[in-house]
Design brief:
By secondary structure, this protein is an alpha+beta fold. It has two helices and three strands. It has a three-stranded antiparallel beta sheet. This is Bifunctional AAC/APH. InterPro entries: Acyl_CoA_acyltransferase, GNAT_dom. It comes from Geodia barretti (Barrett's horny sponge).
Length: 64
């Protein structure tokens, strides 16, 4: 994840990276936080998955 973040910030003109993991995906959220992402906002019923809508976190990391 850090390699991808570094690539996007150094090789493109990206100023912010935004991802939206499901709230219930604790492992992914923790790994994103370790990579530098921070929780920004919950999107209720954002993603249709296995027959139901699920909440997602908006997580962001800004170029330093």
């Amino acid at each position: 994840m850090r390699a991808l973040i570094t690539y996007l910030f150094e090789s493109t003109d990206a100023r912010r990276i935004v991802i939206d993991p499901q709230v219930s995906n604790c492992r992914a959220i923790r790994s994103y936080e370790k990579a530098g992402f921070r929780k920004f906002k919950v999107l209720p019923k954002h993603e249709w998955h296995e027959g139901e809508y699920r909440d997602c976190w908006i997580m962001v990391i800004d170029r330093e």
